[in-house]
Amino acid sequence: MRIGLFFNSDLELSAKVASAILSADYGKRAVEFVYAGGETFRGELDIAISIGGDGTFLMTSKTIMGLNVPLYGINTGRLGFLACGEASSAVRDVEKILDGNYELLSRVPLKGEVVREGSVIRTVRAFNEIMIVKNFVSRPIALSARINGEKLYDFLSDGIIVSTSAGSTAYALSSGGPVIHPDVYCAAVIPICPHSLSPRPVIVPDSTSIKIKLEFSRYGAVLSGDGQDNAEMLSGDEVLVTCDREMKIGVIRLGGGSYFGVLRNKLNWS
Questions:
Q1: Positions of the chain with pLDDT lower than 50, given as ranges
Q2: Burial zone of 85 (CB within 10 Å; 0-12 exposed, 13-18 middle, 19+ buried)
Q3: Residue 7 and residue 17 in contact, taking contact as beta carbons nearer than 8 Å
């Protein structure tokens, strides 16, 4: 089995966890570890392990998207909604994975196609969310949202988020979106600081086509996929957002934890 370790070697705790995994004795288990580094890695892997925070997890997910490589996240960052493995149990977790003692959960990313004058000029993909945000803090942007071709709403705002259920606890949550269990196949549309209370977050099925148009912005706007893949937008540009099942990712979950336990812990629920 060939396992890729994705981590920032400049971060002390991440490097320490990676070193512990590399130096451990796995007995007669046949395993080869590869330092995968950044998102430019193009080797063949059986398993990908992200060591870091949720940002490292998202970078790793982008690298292996559509390659049918299961992903496990070990959290050495702050929150760890996505990378929920613990640094203290990293070696034991790897042993369980090598023995096949894990559950594989399917996560469907988003695809966003930027259309300008009838042509697709850019495609971005995201595990958590695709968002359109204004370029300058002092000027709102005019947006419109269509669901399967039908008007949802037109509005002024600082931007808009289209989130997966797995990404509901990220930027979407801080913008007033709901917490969605990651096993629910859907997408959430969340306006960012709208200049009216009328546009509200909406949850739609994962089969839905969501079209967002930048009706007007004097300074343009930015389209972002997970905050890592950015594209400039001009007035009149449209973004078609769909759930991309062809690029789905298998996320490894080990026994002994629960999603609601993670919520209680990370959100300090009593």
A1: none
A2: buried
A3: yes
Active-site position among 54, 93, 226, 244 = 54
Q: What is the largest CA-CA distance in the chain?
A: 63
Dist. CA 247–CA 256, nearest whole Å: 28
C-alpha to C-alpha distance for 30 and 98, rounded to whole angstroms? 9
Q: Look at domain 110-246 and name its CATH class.
A: mainly beta
In the annotation, is 46 catalytic? no
* Delimiting residues of CATH 2.60.200.30 domain(s) in the chain: 110-246
CATH code, 2-107+248-266? 3.40.50.10330
Instruction: Write out pLDDT tens, residues 19-63.
Output: 999 999 999 999 999 987 655 566 789 999 999 999 999 999 999
